[in-house]
Amino acid sequence: MKTVQTYVQGTRHVRQGKVCQDRTGFLNQNNVYAIALSDGAGNPKYTFSEYGAEVVVDTITRFFCNNFDHFYETQDDKKLSEVLIAVLLKELEKKAAELKADSVVRLSSTMLAVAVKGKKVIICHLGDGAIGAVTEEATTVISSPENGEYANSTYFVTGVRAAEHVKIIKKTITDELGFFLMSDGTADYCYDDVKNEFREGARKMALIAYDDKADELLAKTIAEKMIADDTNSDDCSFISLMLSDRYSFEGTAQRNVDPVRRDKTSSTYEGPAKSEIPVREKTAPEVNRTENKPAAKKNMTGLVIALAVSVALVVVLAAMLLNRKTDVEEAAQEQSSTPVVEEVTQEVINEEEETQEPEAVTEEVPVEVHEVTAEEVNEETVEESTESVAPAKRLIRKFNTNLIDTDK
Fold first, then answer.
1. Domain boundary residue, one of 334, 349, 364
2. Are residues 142 and 19 both part of a single domain?
3. Are residues 11 and 49 in the same domain?
């Protein structure tokens, strides 16, 4: 097995004086190899989210190393999701008490994990970020980001309905050569959310695991080719687990996927055996090799423009209908026989308007907001999320204790 991992502070957090809130982790125990990634909530209300991310990564890797077989054999995914969230909340409560936080919600973060034992694989995902697999010929999406109702929002471990949004995938290894996790910051550069596919940069970073100085090279690659020239970049994190100790791809597949390989005209770098960073000629698109693939942010701009055009068309049609309605009403008034009819008509209209004014307010269940600036949404998130914390310990006791790591 080969692994590579890093998390790098984004330029936006550097400018705001915030620490990097992403965390990654790897653990090998009991013949289980587990990798995890967690992205701490970025809003100022989540004051200890980086600590929450650390707890999630440490807890989920230990959990799978101690409970892999039982978890894999249990068929009730709803029950397993509830157990996972309960175990995580239990550890987060301990950390919140240690930090003297007024609520465990202050430690909110996402959760991504892959655990491998023999040919068996468990994959768990809550929130944004993405999980992928590397084969000899392709890079596939195993779990795509799940965002909330609001822009830049997602689901966190501390959420009221967190267990309902946990994705659990169990499979046996077929042609997979490795797995990788990335935060939403990294996904901005390496994942196309419109096509639901990874760009070449994701594959190249996963294969950096075979470099002699893999972690260092990955950190430099992200810092220099993604974050450096983006003045509003988010924190970026990435971790991969390659199932073979050797770089054993054959034929054209190997020649096409050497990580950060350059043409001889631009660099002397010849593949994963060296740790030097190739000469940087471009910014993020250089890593992604997206000459024919628009960047995710460009795709987003296109969608915004299309949406604006659609809204404009709707406004024009509404104006035309309103004018037509006004013409009809004026014609009807001209044909009226007495002023009394007009007065009665106005009274009826007023009554209808009065009865229509009070609209039923439907209570919306708030989503855990990730990097949202709207104060109202954030306040609702904090107030509602605390309801899920109290039953955590009771929930754990409902399940077979063999699922819980009781030694730690």
1. 349
2. yes
3. yes
Which pTM was predicted?
0.66
Range of the domain at 233: 2-293+399-403
- The conformational region for residue 324 under phi > 0 = left, psi -120 to 50 = alpha, else beta, is alpha
Q: Which residue has the tokens 């001209």?
A: 334
141-159 exposure pattern, b = at least 16 Cβ within 10 A, e = fewer: bbbbbbbbebebbbbbbbb
Give helix then strand counts, H and E, for the chain: 12, 12
Coil vs helix vs strand at 36 = strand
Average pLDDT of the chain, as a whole number: 74
User: Which residue(s) pair with 154 in the sheet?
Assistant: 147
Averaging pLDDT over each range in 195-204, 243-252, 266-275, which range is the top one?
Answer: 195-204
pLDDT recorded at residue 302:
65
Domain assignment present for 104? yes
Residue 167 shares a structural domain with residue 204? yes
Spatial CB neighbours of 175, under 8 Å, sequence gap ≥ 6: 135, 136
Q: What angle do CA 317, 318, 320 make, to 5 degrees?
A: 65
Q: Does 182 reside within a domain?
A: yes
Q: What is the tally of structural domains in the chain?
A: 2
- Cβ(153)–Cβ(368) under 8 Å? yes
Q: What are the helix (H) ranges across 283-295?
A: 284-288
pLDDT band at 319 (very low <50, low <70, confident <90, very high): low
Residue from 183, 203, 212 nearest 57 by CA: 183
Residues 74-107: pLDDT tens digits? 999 999 999 999 999 999 999 999 999 999 999 9
**Tell me: the pLDDT tens digits for 359-385?**
444 444 344 444 434 333 333 333 334
Give the pair of three-digit tokens for residue 66.
Answer: 């101690």
Half-sphere exposure of 400 (CA within 13 A, CB side): 9
How far is the C-alpha of 219 from the C-alpha of 237, rounded, in Å?
9
